[in-house]
Predict the 3D structure of the following.
Amino acid sequence: MSGNADATLCDMTLHELHDMLLSGQVSSREITSDVLARIDEVEASVGAYVTRDRETALKGADAADEVIARARRDRDTGAIGALVGIPVVLKDNVCTRGMRTTCCSKMLEDFIPTYDAAVTARLREAGAVIVGKGNMDEFAMGSTTQTSVFHVTRNPWDLERVPGGSSGGCAAAVAAGEAVASIGTDTGGSIRQPASFCGVVGLKPTYGRVSRYGVVAFASSLDTVGPITRDVRDCAIMLKAIAGRDGRDSTSAPDAVPDYSSCVERGVQGLRIGIPEQFFGPGMTDGVRTAVERALRALEDAGADIVEVSLPLAEHALAVYYLVATAEASSNMARLDGIRYGYRPEGRGGMDVADLMSASRGQGFGMEVKRRIMLGTFVLSSGNFDAFYGRALRSRRLLAEDVRRALTECDCLVSPTAPTVAFRFDEEPDDPLAMYLQDIYTTLANLAGVPAISVPCGLADGMPVGLQIMGRMFDEATLIRAGRAVELTSGMDAARPKVGGCAK
Ligand code: GLN
């Protein structure tokens, strides 16, 4: 979505707004006020935010305007970073000093962090304006944002449909013009699937590329933090801002961070794009298949070589994910006991420690979180450990090997991001297993640790379809390059959500 002359400020891309800030055409106060006005207009129907801080946002905008004015006076606009004065939203599992961080759980409803997550600090240092916190599935467990303790978020393309999850609030906010860009988290698809459902770009970086310090853990060997943005260029800018080594996250990698923006327009001439046959079998809807196949033809026309590859074990990814993720979740959730952290029930006089913990956890956690804790505890229990968890770990290694081998035959792997477009609230499967199938194409990247992006590639039933591109470890640059080629031919710059967008 770029270069639209009718766009209101809050519907423009980060890079367009940056150029306008540099030339003095607009101020951050104007952009931020426009975003706040859009929030006032649509938030009652979209429900993307759980916390907003108008005053601090406007103060941040004024500070950014001063930085810009000074640089312009000194004729040094090159010193103005790409994020200065840009309004962003952070998922509510990313710690923000002084602003509550709830994971959309009753357990952390009143938790106000005394420190910033690494990504929060980097965005602040880069001059971004933090508008508030995005709604999410409780503790990031889900695919619809409906397990939030606060309220549902509605898809800006059709308010009768889910925005996806778990980073559904952030994806909906970016789609509806309630923020220019955002930060989500992805353990099994939670950046990519909501990005796909809301017609925006979402990137799950390589494991270790972005520090998780200060991000509430769900499944530590799978958790990643990444951007959700309006277009691929914005995604490159945001990734550059948050990536890189951080001594406070021992899994964060020392590898140098490339200038992703310089890769955006490289094109796909000669790029070898692998199509894993296992990701094009039954399961996806016809509309999704048609949109993805059209995008593949467009990539071929743009000069890419399309090659068929095989990921023979891919069908097991979902099962392995739900064993590893629940096991790690049950361990990470153990700290939320009402003693050191989290909700404590009223009227606890006379309770012993065990009763207090069980009352805190019984009342503080919602259904889906409890289901995951129970599944995870079961697979880790001594009698089952090897049959389930041990086998899952061994399978994970084989799956990662499959991905690595496929990526020696090609530069990246393409598939749909999700098997369906955003479904209606009344079509939501009641069976948790059917819901877990939403993650069929996304979990493999987390298990293998590789990066993956979702880019809108067309519409089906009037709803956006996301194309997923998976790449080699630390090769986000290729995903950005290929993602931009998809964006250029998708026709999506003419499509707009019903709420927000720049149709009016
Ligand atoms: N939908 C997946 C789940 O429920 C993914 C969650 C995530 O990536 N945080 O586990």
User: Anything to note?
Assistant: The domain at 9-269+451-489 is CATH 3.90.1300.10 (Amidase signature (AS) enzymes). DSSP finds 15 helices and eleven strands in the chain. The pocket of glutamine is lined by residues 140-143, 166, 185-190, 218, 325, 439 (CB under 6 Å). The radius of gyration is 22 Å.
